[in-house]
What we know:
mainly alpha
Amino acid sequence: KSQALKTRAWSQVTSVQQTVSLHASIYMRTRKQMIRLEPGQDQLQKYKPLLHEQLKVSSAIGDPNARGQQNESLAWFWSIEVDLGGLNHSWNEECEFQHA
């Protein structure tokens, strides 16, 4: 029974790591495209590059009051504020691209 619990736990850890990797990859590709659009300095400060050490899965996220977490600081992206309301929720509108 103990072996089954360990296997299940490692399976969950692997699943979380894969999810983090997927989202990090999407973010990095999206940021790269954003930079091609030459955004303002405020946007570049808000959407910083991801560093490998910031992608470590930590229990501080799930339980910030857990023992030993008081000196643990979370990466910048855990505190970023994103206004999804925007102007008439324009972030959620479809757009069409026409090729010349």
